[in-house]
Specification:
The complex is a heterotrimer. Chain A has 20 helices and 12 strands. By secondary structure, chain A is of the alpha/beta class. The radius of gyration of chain A is 24 Å and the shape is globular. In chain B, 68% of the residues lie in helices and 0% in strands. Chain C is mostly helical. In chain C, helix 4 runs antiparallel to helix 10. Chain C is globular, with a radius of gyration of 25 Å. The N and C termini of chain C lie far apart (52 Å). The chains are: A alpha/beta, B mainly alpha, C mainly alpha. At the A-B interface, strand 1, helix 4, strand 2, helix 5 and helix 14 of A face helix 2, helix 6 and helix 11 of B.
């Protein structure tokens, strides 16, 4: 049941009529679309503030012209709210997710125009114990209205138990499908119903370098990359510079950066079909394809190729992993990480804009050229209230997602968003949008028990590569029990 | 007790001077040993204290002790960020609302039970006591789902009352264990003479057992306060994410770092901010740990 | 003014008052009973409030857990002992059990021994309260904070580069190569236990110190006047009198080691053979969606504690006999 519903045919959606006019929610939705067209047709590339401003302006004018119509609809939760007459719904919507710190600030900024427009208060709680909250919540029935979801596996489980509400008649389906990459739409679909949506996204498997150190341009193949890395490392005076920097430590989730490496190799060496089978638990870890991916990663973290050797790799926090790119002399030439790492380069690595740049992970098997791995934050609805519906509808729009994107640190799941704040994130977004073969982060799609074992396997293998066979055999054992009922 | 056997002869005077100088040497060794322990204990915290005032990039690159050099940079940015965080004041008040009743109720409940276990005889007492203390080992996480269902049926889910009651339940085994042990060590004569004077169990409890157990009660107050103050999971689950305005400081603090583990530098400042109150409680209750509070009543 | 303040006040003052009222009421009621019955009924009435809480918040969930431990992951079908079989046949959980035994021995010895040492030493100096506060300090720090603190202690950088970790910095200053504290087993488990001991020593110290203050000063002075050395006073008087309290903190530490979770959860999450059973249970329960297996682990934990509790019973019987 934790199988990923990749490529499921969606049929028989009963698209909710947008003609049944004039609920404030519909008003809101319509104003988005109006604004949307403006955004696309007239001023592509407007800045974040302008978009937000337009949104508010459009919404306000839209509702103020039809006050009587809005008040006549009598939205349930609005009863008693003095704001109802001015097109506001009022009330509150509770949201829980894993975002903290600046992510939380970005999310709150994202919902601010929504709050202003609808009078709905968004109460957000961020916690790393999301799993515990959702597990206890589903068992007892006490749940937030909207929540971030740990992964598609759990989403399917919650959806089938009835805890998660389908979104087919919540979202404007045709608009949602037009705005969202089909792969992401599929990932949020359970038994033909859309249950989860993506709030933001990231591109995985980018290779970062310091343009002041590495100047040989984007390699054409993996072998070319290795050769260029060795040459660049050898060219640095002192002889201590290594081709790679890797940091795998991440507290309770230590090891995850290595899973991205393996996934990139599987996808580009063995192709998307093997990748999908592997995600679904139908490809053995001990199979030659997966083993080859581990071995390729093993070359990267071998003492000759990686800064500080394997023990440094497993003890270095992933956020600090790329720091040696910026030291003098540099500790390494390349660092492999998702698009969000730029923030860490600046804050923890002390790097300035212009000191870092990237090229995409090169193709390995030409048959699978143009493959890209991405990830994103899945979101679902537990309580079907008018407020929750309105917020869900809002969150998938380009207007909402452009706010987070404009604040930096995220790519949008909505392909219509274009207001990226700098060249690097713009290029990352282009890679996501133009991928010939797109696949979602495999470890995020696996059942949590499998994912957890995958993390540990990365750490164990990095420290002692001679144990590869027993590590993979153990993963097979876990695969046999982690999937299915 | 055997240790009390008195040698029949007084000490020869000649030994005294000798003993005195040895004492001074002993004192020196004593101070040295204590100082060493204190340094070892403080070192980790000191490291974080220094780092909490340094820019994040410096913390990643150099050890905290390098901040002792005159060229080191310092910043109060981490503290400013934490102290100006939205909802900090509300979360602090919420923590107090959760913690104070959750400390007082279990200790009151436990005191009566501990007295009964210590000074009343009844069949099955030892077995029952073992069960009570054995409950200490019940992992809190396994109780969350059944209790949350109970709260939901009772209409208490999401209320402070739910958290108070739950913390009372969780805190009781240790409170009973510690208090029963302390009360059990009180001298029998005190209670016997009180009984002869016609005092009932209630009088003996309120007038003798409880006042004589003040140090143990003070210790319990400290621990229960700490446990509840630093608790994240119980509050999160019982108050519910559906009630963001009621959540305590711990939830806000854990939320300072982002989901990728970045922005951890704020956690350093937050750790010092959130430990201030428990330390005040500890300082305030320390005066109950002085000799003689039990009136020298404990039998030797 | 916060409207909840009223509620809180009612609770803070009202609940203790209600409980006192309850006990006084009970005593009134008992007077109506025949004298012979009084001592039989009284203990149960005194215990009633505590037992009510324990039944609802601990015993009921434990029975619930017991039932779950015999069921499948959806709590639908009876699976017999399959979850227990899983526990005792999986390498990860057996490794966790082994680590817990190391925790049990080391943490109990370090924390109780350390707490006793500090309590006895600082009892003799004037700056006692400052010294105790410093040892107590780690207990006041949340686990999130403690994790950050010890990351600075254990930080590892490649040999030959600048060490940012306190411990490796110290080693470097005497020319020793840096040690990856949290990577090499079994050193990493010891490192985690050291963190736990750093936290829990203050706990043991507070309780032991409170008991120490209960020993009559005259008694100790008498022994000293009689020519007993400090060591003799400690071994012959202080230690025997502290024994019941030592047993209490040791029992608590044994239970704490069996339940060890937070430190492992935040620092390694069980990587490199540092897994412990409570962390495993947390994962099975909340991440892996295996409440049955998690429940079996919880029940095994309960079973492990039985011998410790039996020792406690014997001790209480002895205490009863001598007082």
């Amino acid at each position: 049941m934790t199988e990923v519903p990749l490529g499921i045919e969606h049929g028989g959606y009963s698209q909710r009529s947008t003609l049944c006019t004039k609920s404030p929610v519909d008003d809101l939705e319509r104003s988005y679309r109006v604004n949307h067209r403006m955004g696309n047709g007239i001023r592509r590339g407007v800045t974040l503030l302008a978009v937000a401003g337009l949104l508010v302006a459009a919404c306000t004018s839209g509702t103020s012209t039809t006050p009587s119509a809005a008040s006549a609809t009598g939205v349930p939760a609005a009863s008693g709210s003095p704001a109802a007459s001015s097109g506001q719904i009022g009330g509150k919507v509770t949201v829980i997710g894993t975002w903290g710190g600046s992510e939380q600030d970005s999310f709150l900024a994202m919902v601010k125009p929504f709050e202003d427009q609808t009078g709905i208060k968004v109460e957000y709680t961020g916690t790393r114990d999301l799993n515990a909250v959702l597990t206890t919540g589903v068992a007892s029935g006490i749940l937030p209205d909207l929540a971030g979801l740990p992964g598609p596996g759990q989403m399917a489980e919650y959806a089938r138990s009835g805890a998660l509400k389908p979104l087919n008649d919540v979202l404007d389906l045709s608009q949602y499908k037009a705005d969202t990459a089909p792969a992401l739409v599929d990932l949020g679909t359970v038994d033909g119903k859309i249950t989860g949506v993506f709030i933001k996204a990231a591109v995985k498997g980018l290779i970062w370098y310091n343009p002041g150190v590495y100047t040989a341009g984007a390699p054409t193949s993996w072998d070319d990359l290795r050769a260029k890395a060795k040459a660049a490392a050898a060219a640095v005076a002192g002889g201590k510079t290594k081709p790679w920097c890797v940091g795998l430590e991440s507290g309770a989730a230590s090891g995850w950066p290595g899973t991205d490496w393996i996934e990139d190799f599987v996808l580009r060496q063995a192709g998307p079909d093997i990748y999908d089978k592997w995600v679904a638990g139908k490809q053995k870890w001990t199979s030659p394809e997966i083993k080859a991916a581990f071995q390729a990663f093993g070359q990267v973290v071998s003492p000759d190729d990686v800064y500080g050797g394997p023990k440094t790799v497993v003890t270095t926090n992933f956020g600090d992993g790329g720091n040696p790119l910026f030291t003098t002399p540099p500790g390494c030439i390349f660092h492999h990480q998702a698009s969000f790492i730029t923030d860490f380069f600046k804050k923890q690595g002390g790097a300035k804009d212009g000191q870092f740049d990237f090229f995409p992970f090169p193709d390995i098997n030409p048959q699978y050229a143009g493959a890209v791995e991405g990830a994103g934050d899945l979101f679902g609805m537990f309580n079907d209230t008018p407020q929750a519906r309105a917020l869900m509808k809002y969150l998938v729009t380009a207007e909402a997602q452009s706010i987070w994107v404009g604040r930096g640190g995220a790519l949008s799941a909505n392909t219509k968003v274009t207001n990226y704040p700098d060249a690097i994130s713009k290029r990352s977004a282009a890679i996501l949008a133009n991928a010939k073969i797109f696949r979602f982060d495999a470890s995020d799609l696996m059942p949590q028990a499998m994912n957890d074992a995958f993390w540990k396997a990365i750490l164990d293998y990095t420290v002692d590569p001679t144990k590869l066979d027993s590590i993979l055999t153990n993963l097979d054992t876990i695969q046999a029990s982690a999937y299915g009922g | 007790m055997s240790a009390l056997r008195r040698p029949s002869m007084p000490h020869p005077l000649s030994g005294r001077a000798n003993r005195f100088s040895r004492l001074r040497l002993d004192r020196l060794a004593l101070h040295g040993a204590i100082l060493l322990i204190l340094i070892v204990w403080l070192l980790p915290t000191l490291g974080m204290l220094v780092n909490s005032f340094r820019p994040a990039a410096d913390v990643s690159h150099t050890g905290w002790w390098t901040a002792l050099s005159p060229t080191a940079q310092f910043t109060t940015e981490n503290y400013q960020h934490v102290l100006t965080r939205n909802g900090l004041g509300q979360a602090f008040v919420n923590s107090l609302f959760i913690t104070i009743p959750s400390t007082i109720i279990p200790i009151t409940v436990a005191a009566f039970a501990a007295y009964a276990f210590a000074w009343m005889r009844f069949p099955g007492r030892d077995l029952l006591f073992v069960v009570v203390v054995g409950l200490l080992v019940v992992p809190l996480q396994t109780t969350l789902i059944p209790i949350l269902r109970l709260f939901k049926d009772a209409g208490l889910a999401g209320s402070f009352l739910a958290v108070w009651l739950a913390h009372t339940g969780y805190g009781l085994p240790f409170a009973i264990f510690l208090l029963r042990n302390y009360m059990g060590g009180l001298p029998r004569e005190v209670f016997e003479s009180a009984a002869i004077d016609g005092a009932g169990p209630a009088t003996a409890f309120f007038r003798l057992a409880l006042p004589m157990s003040i140090p143990a009660v003070a210790a319990l107050v400290i621990f229960q306060f700490l446990f509840v103050w630093n608790d994240l999971l119980v509050a999160l689950v019982y108050l519910g994410a559906a009630n963001a305005a009621n959540l305590p400081l711990t939830v806000l603090v854990a939320n300072l770092a982002n989901s990728l583990g970045g922005e951890w530098q704020f956690l350093m400042a937050a750790a010092f901010v959130s430990m201030a109150l428990p330390l005040v409680v500890f300082f305030a209750l320390q005066r109950y740990f002085v000799r003689g509070i039990t009136g020298g009543a404990v039998k030797g | 003014m916060d409207p909840r303040l009223g509620t809180a006040l009612v609770v803070v003052v009202g609940v203790p008052l209600a409980l006192i009222g309850y006990i006084l009421g009970v005593e009134q009621l008992l007077r109506a009973l025949p004298g012979r019955l009084q001592p039989r009924v009284r203990p149960w009435l005194w215990l009633l409030p505590a037992l009510a809480f324990l039944v609802v918040f601990l015993i009921y969930p434990t029975l619930y857990t017991l039932v779950l431990s015999f069921e499948d992951k959806f709590a639908r079908h009876f699976v017999g002992l399959a979850n227990y079989q899983y526990f005792f046949s999986t390498g990860d959980t057996i490794g966790a059990l082994r680590n817990n035994i190391v925790w049990l021995v080391l943490l109990t010895v370090l924390a109780v021994g350390g707490g006793l040492l500090v309590a006895v030493l600082v009892d003799r100096v004037r700056y006692e309260s400052v010294a105790k506060s410093i040892i107590f300090l780690p207990l006041a720090i949340s686990f999130v904070g403690a994790a950050v603190i010890w990351q600075f202690m254990f930080a590892y950088r490649p040999p030959g580069t600048f060490q940012t970790g306190t411990l490796n910095g110290l080693l470097g200053s005497v020319g020793v190569a840096p040690v990856p504290w949290l990577i090499d087993a079994p050193l990493n488990t010891v490192a985690l236990i050291v963190v736990a001991a750093w936290i829990w020593t203050g706990f043991c110290m507070v309780i032991l110190s409170a008991a120490l203050k209960g020993i009559s000063a005259e008694l100790l002075e008498a022994a000293r006047v009689d020519g007993a050395t400090e060591l003799q006073v400690f071994r012959r008087i202080t230690l025997p009198l502290l024994m019941p309290t030592i047993a209490v903190v040791a029992t608590t530490m044994v239970i704490t080691s069996l339940k060890a979770f937070d430190i492992v959860y935040v620092m390694t999450n069980g990587a490199f053979d540092t897994e412990v059973i409570a962390n495993r249970m947390y994962k099975e329960l909340f991440s892996f969606g295996q409440p049955g297996r998690a429940s079996a682990i919880a029940i095994v934990l309960l079973a492990l504690i039985v011998p410790v509790m039996l020792l406690n019973v014997r001790r209480f019987r002895d205490q009863e006999a001598i007082r």
